[in-house]
Design a protein that fits this description.
The complex is a heterotrimer of chains A (218), B (259) and C (222). Chain A is an all-alpha fold. Helices cover 84% and strands 0% of the residues of chain A. The two termini of chain B are 27 Å apart. The chains are: A mainly alpha (218), B alpha/beta (259), C mainly alpha (222). The interface between A and C is large, with 38 and 37 residues.
Chain lengths: 218, 259, 222
């Protein structure tokens, strides 16, 4: 029988982990925006070795599972850096590397998709390359990148759940903890799913809406 | 209206295709057909000409029930046509259609495209269907192109395959919807040749076209459609050499010299 | 490097078995996802409004919940709803991954079908085919060709997500790595090797799909 009282009682405990989840997502995204911009610019306009290095770095973080990345950082970082970094920091680092790689790809293709003619037109007016980029290219790339960026945010929010596997106390970790205490697995997990659904569904719909709106403009 | 005496091929039989006071509007109010009436007797080639937007394509699509209409009636072989369901599908087996954009199935080669109708709809076994397809491919002058994909064929070749595909169903009548409008001038001729050959074999054809010399040479009857209405109809000699309606004269005047 | 070779030699049975589990898990979940995804995509594109809405709800729900949560929830909740004592971890993994990837594939297929020209349907109908037959013989094949890159993406994603099943004790390669690390305490070697392994696998899958797509792209272009 589905134990409704346990179901409802899970919520306060779970929601106490929500702060960590949101913090992780927001901090990671903020950092990713900066890092990804730098990566995209470096790859598009930097020297060949730089572009290749960034490309390789990007490929690694995109092609390997996040959970293994976190484990790798969690266990391996202490060997490189002499301090034992707190789990939270490792989680943010891992999420940041992973997320910014995906984001960098989005930015890169958005910028590259702007027609060459735009560059020529801007430079023909006498603009420097930097100014041409800031005034002409970047604004157009921004709206092209927006839907995919929204999608990446939605994915990031879900990906934060994986930090629970390296003992960071996000909402998923709280759920698994609670399950161990109460043994009401079905109820706790259902509450967890519901919270993610309540948060994720509107975000996903917003991303969908952005996709449809931007397409019309093209 | 059009006395049967005017139409040598009528042979005192009822028409194969009978369109009576057809009305059609698109949602949003655009009235495409305003009471169009038209007859086609078996073995006749009826060419439908007129300015763009006059409703010619819509008219054609009504005949094989691809387009629902609002008022009037259409009869095929004496029976009123069904709008949908199995009866409509049966109708479409008996009427072949060739499209302006060819609409060959890109994931099948030429032979498979032609054989698809017999296999899927007539339940023909694969070998027999492919045999029939081979014959038709040769008939339209493309023997040797059996395994070519549509992407590997020129526009004119694709359109000839499309004609063969429609013929594979052994229809009693064929509808041609501006089938040469999307072709390069060099390839228009090869398609018109096939159509002329078909006409010579006695196929009943409704042809929407801008190719006036083709209409003049091959048509038994020409219908001029403008803004959803039949403005004039008659044998090609009348329409092209001595049109009775000023609107027909106006339309013909605006055509490019090659017409 | 020498450490790696001896590690593999010393534990070849475990590694081989867990490799097989990884293959099984992914092959089964991807097959399930394809069938489910195509069925839902076609159902949404051709079916009645209500079906479209209902399936859309399912897809949206799956897309909103983290895959880890879906995996764990499937493992614990499915038995409850099906009145079974417990679900074997591998089965739970297959179902969870299959539903998740399937939901995304459904969207891809649905979009693919919508992108095929209306003229193709008309041409099929003009031959006397029934609408469902046109979908099956003409529209769906083209949609699938167009969907290949996105499906390839989803397959790669499935492989990466599959390591999360280690949390419900599916004995895949990652699970074996965790086990070995517990015994031997060689995290750098083990986890780096795992990273490299999955990198190679996902790259190969992506290249394979890309290669196939290059060859067959014209089949989807009407």
């Amino acid at each position: 029988m589905f134990d409704w009282p346990s179901f409802w009682e899970s919520f306060p405990v779970l929601l106490s982990g929500l702060g960590v989840t949101v913090e992780l997502a927001v901090v990671t995204m903020a950092g990713s925006l900066v890092v990804a911009t730098a990566m995209a610019l470096g790859r598009l306009y930097g020297s060949r070795p730089l572009a290749m290095a960034i490309g390789a770095w990007t490929d690694i973080w995109i092609a390997t599972p996040l959970m293994i990345q976190l484990y790798w950082l969690y266990y391996v970082m202490p060997s490189f850096v002499d301090l034992r970094l707190p789990g939270m920091l490792i989680a943010i680092l891992g999420l940041l590397f992973n997320n910014s790689a995906f984001l960098a790809e989005v930015f890169r293709s958005a910028i590259a998709s702007i027609r060459d003619g735009q560059w020529y037109a801007a430079r023909a007016l006498g603009m420097s390359e930097t100014r041409a980029f800031m005034r002409v290219i970047a604004p157009q790339a921004f709206s092209r990148a927006l839907p995919a960026t929204a999608n990446i945010w939605v994915e990031l929010f879900k990906n934060t759940s994986i930090v629970s596997t390296v003992a960071v106390t996000d909402i998923t970790f709280k759920a698994l903890e609670l399950r161990n205490d109460t043994f009401r697995t079905l109820e706790v997990l259902s509450a967890l799913a519901l919270i993610y659904l309540a948060l994720g569904y509107p975000q996903a719909k917003l991303a969908d809406w952005l996709y449809s709106r931007i397409k019309v403009r093209e | 209206m059009n006395a049967a005496a005017n139409r040598p091929k009528s042979l005192n039989r009822p028409p194969l295709i009978e369109i009576e006071r057809l009305e059609q509007s698109y949602p949003g109010g655009l009235r495409t057909l305003r009471g169009v009436s038209l007859l086609a007797y078996e073995g006749e080639v009826v060419c439908i000409i007129g300015p763009s937007g006059s409703g010619k394509s819509t008219l054609l699509r009504c005949v094989n029930a691809l387009q629902p209409f609002d008022a009037g009636r259409i009869a095929f072989d004496g029976r009123q046509i069904a709008h949908k369901g199995a009866a409509a599908r049966t109708l479409r087996r008996n009427i072949g259609m060739v499209f302006q954009s060819f609409e060959l199935f890109p994931h099948m080669n030429a032979l498979a495209n032609i054989a698809e109708g017999p296999r899927s709809v007539l339940g023909m076994p694969k070998r027999a269907a492919f045999e029939r397809a081979r014959g038709l491919l040769a008939k339209v002058g493309l023997a040797g192109k059996e395994s070519s994909l549509p992407a590997e064929l020129s526009g004119g070749q694709q359109q000839r395959v499309a004609i063969a595909r429609a013929l594979a169903m052994e229809p009693r009548a064929m509808l041609f919807d501006e089938v040469t409008s999307a072709l390069d001038p060099e390839t228009v001729g090869e398609v018109l040749l096939v159509m002329q050959q078909l006409a010579g074999e006695g196929m009943t054809m409704l042809v929407v076209t801008h190719e006036m010399s083709f209409a003049r040479r091959v048509a038994d009857w020409v219908v001029v459609l403008e803004a959803g209405e039949v403005v004039e109809e008659g044998p090609p000699k009348q329409i092209f050499d001595a049109p009775t309606s000023p609107r027909t004269r106006e339309f013909l005047r605006h055509l490019a010299p090659h017409g | 490097m020498a450490g790696l070779v001896s590690l593999i030699q010393g534990n070849s049975d475990l590694l081989w078995d867990s490799f097989l589990v990884m293959l099984e898990l992914n092959a089964a979940s991807i097959a399930f996802a394809l069938v489910l995804g195509i069925a839902i995509g076609v159902g949404r594109h051709c079916g009645p409004r209500l079906l479209d809405y209902g399936l859309g709800l399912f897809v949206d729900v799956i897309r909103s919940i983290p895959i880890l949560v879906i995996v764990v929830w499937t493992f614990f909740a499915f038995p409850y709803f099906l009145d079974l004592p417990a679900l074997p971890p591998l089965a739970a993994g297959v179902i969870a991954l299959g539903m998740h990837s399937g939901a995304y594939i459904a969207e891809v297929v649905r979009g693919g079908m919508g992108s095929v020209r209306a003229g193709q349907m008309q041409a099929g109908l003009a031959l006397g085919m029934s609408p469902m037959r046109v979908i099956w013989r003409v529209i769906l094949p083209q949609a699938l060709v167009r969907s290949l890159p996105a499906i390839g993406n989803r397959v790669s994603r499935n492989i990466k997500d599959s390591v999360l099943t280690s949390t419900i004790a599916v004995k895949d390669l990652f699970w074996a790595g965790i086990l070995l690390n517990g015994e031997l305490s060689r995290p750098f070697l083990i986890y780096t090797t795992l990273m490299v392994f999955y990198f190679i696998v996902t790259e190969l899958v992506s290249r394979a799909f890309e290669g196939v797509y290059q060859r067959v792209a014209t089949l989807g272009r009407a």
